[in-house]
Design brief:
Elements (H helix, E strand, L loop, with lengths): L1 H18 L15 E7 L1 H6 L5 E6 H17 L4 H11 L2 E4 L4 E6 L5 E9 L5 E11 H4 L4 E4 L2
Parallel strand pairs: 2-6
Antiparallel strand pairs: 1-2, 3-4, 3-7, 4-5, 5-6
């Protein structure tokens, strides 16, 4: 019963967000001059995490955001923001539940840090949008809900 109630609340939040007449906080793909497709969340993975299968895009604004907030940590591992996002989309091996509407694609490896990008499903559209990309400590991932792991 509790699960149904929380799903109903989430559905209501999604409906409210979709009905907004003012622009959302972050610009959408169609408003961007330069959006780049990074890959696609496959049908089998999407089904396993109960989400939609859709293409994954990154906008110029989010590349700038990643550059402004995370460039030093990305440079330390030899990546530009765009190359880092491409690498994670191409090689993620875990998916975690992110914030309210997001998921985290994670490339888990043998080091103390993991490569992660946060995706939001763009409502009224059939694509995921990269929200941020960064290195995260493995320790910080323990409190997140694991939705999928590559076998």
């Amino acid at each position: 019963m509790m699960e149904i109630h929380s799903q109903t609340k989430l559905f209501i939040k999604i409906q409210k967000r979709m009905k907004r007449k003012t622009p959302t906080k972050h610009p959408r793909i169609e408003d961007q001059a330069h959006a780049q497709k990074l890959g696609r969340l496959s049908q089998s993975v999407a089904k396993a995490i109960r989400r939609e299968s859709a293409d994954i895009y990154i906008t110029e604004n989010y590349i700038k955001h990643i550059f402004n907030r995370h460039i030093e940590e990305l440079r330390a591992v030899g990546y530009t923001p765009l190359d880092f996002a491409k690498e994670v989309v191409a090689g993620f091996n875990r998916i975690y539940k992110g914030t309210e509407f997001s998921i985290l694609l994670v490339k888990w490896n043998g080091t103390q840090k993991v490569a992660a990008i946060e995706l939001n499903l763009a409502f009224k559209h059939n694509f995921y949008e990269v929200k941020t990309a960064q290195m995260r400590a493995k320790e910080n991932m323990k409190n997140l809900e694991l939705l999928w792991q590559k076998k």
